[in-house]
UniProtKB/TrEMBL annotation:
Keywords: Hydrolase. It is an enzyme of class 3 (hydrolase). It comes from the Bacteria. It comes from Cytobacillus eiseniae. This is Protein phosphatase. One of its GO terms (molecular function) is protein serine/threonine phosphatase activity. Residues 2-242 form the PPM-type phosphatase domain. PROSITE patterns: PPM_2 (PS51746). Its EC number is 3.1.3.16. Pfam families: PP2C_2.
Length: 252
């Protein structure tokens, strides 16, 4: 397995409030995380950084994950703990009042991937069955689409597209979506903030992912596309690839 993480401020924002990375536990298994912070007075980057640091520390101390149930329970417990940390911090530090962050995190083993998400940062799978979004956006626009009030086409340009209904740290308790899928040789996993998914079409993502470029080149190309399409937001992504047997892994 190999992975690449990349983030970019974009062309408009003064600060990058996204955070992310790929980390190994004591058994060498990987946890990929993308967090997109929100909140005034630069509190967004505080929220995403705190969420990332909490998950990173817990994962680096974690032992071998052997089953999907273990992976899902680890994600649930760790993210709920992170929510408490952020919520208490926002109550006690005035400049961080109301801060929050999206989180999409994936535990990647050599048999399965368990994915957890809150907010509108996404996880996709690209394999022999095609390209599929694994996560559901916890956003106002997605709820309007789901209930048939607007079309997917309308959603692309809706004025309230950035309104998130669920995030880490904004409420005392949090509802986390978690699912597990089989991860097989040559499968690709893409995690990203909405700075990528709002600007780069699925067709463009597929074209880049199936290209002969290296992992780093694919990541850079996707960020370039988002910037070329406006780059109004921070752009963060992780690509994880399950290698053929015998191929040596590199990257993160």
């Amino acid at each position: 397995m190999k992975a690449v993480y990349m983030t970019d401020r974009g062309r408009i924002r003064q600060h990058n409030e996204d955070n992310g990375g790929v980390f190994k536990n004591t058994s060498g298994q990987r946890l990929a995380i993308v967090a997109d912070g929100m909140g005034g007075h630069r509190a967004g980057d505080v929220a995403s950084e705190m969420a990332l640091a909490n998950l990173k520390k817990r994962w680096e101390e974690a032992t071998l994950i052997q089953t999907a149930d273990e992976a899902e329970e680890w994600l649930k417990t760790a993210i709920e703990n992170g929510n408490t940390l952020l919520y208490e911090h926002s109550k006690n530090v005035s400049e961080c009042k109301g801060m929050g962050t999206t989180v999409v995190a994936a535990i990647c083993t050599d048999r399965f991937v368990s994915v957890a998400n809150i907010g509108d940062s996404r996880c996709y799978i690209f394999n022999e069955n095609g390209f599929q979004q694994l996560t559901d956006d916890h956003s106002l626009v997605n709820e309007l689409v789901r209930t048939g009030q607007i079309s997917k086409e309308d959603a692309e340009h809706h004025p309230m597209k950035n309104v998130v209904l669920r995030s880490l740290g904004t409420e005392e308790t949090v509802n986390i979506d978690i699912k597990t899928i089989i991860f097989e040789e040559e499968d690709l996993l893409l995690l990203c903030s909405d700075g990528l998914s709002n600007k780069v079409t699925e067709a463009e993502m597929i074209e880049v992912l199936q290209s002969e470029q290296s992992m780093n080149e694919k990541a850079a190309t996707l960020i370039d596309l988002a910037n070329n399409h406006g780059g109004e937001d921070n752009i963060t992504l992780i690509i994880v690839e399950f290698l053929d047997s015998g191929e040596s892994g590199d990257g993160l």
